[in-house]
Amino acid sequence: MSAPSTATSTEPSAPAARRVSQLDERTRDRVLSAVLERGPVSAAELGEGLGFTPAAMRRHLDALSRDGLIEVKRGRHTAGGAGRPARRYVLSQHGQSAVGEDYLGIARAALTRLGETAGPTAIDDFARERFSSMEERYQPVVDAAGPELEARAEALAEALTADGFVGSTKTVGSPIRRSPQAEAAPRSMLGVQLCQGHCPIQGLASEFPAFCEQETAVFARLLDVDVRRLSTLARGGHVCTTHIPLGRAVTADALSTAAAARTAPATLSIHQQGRP
Question: What pTM did the predictor assign?
Answer without folding.
Answer: 0.57
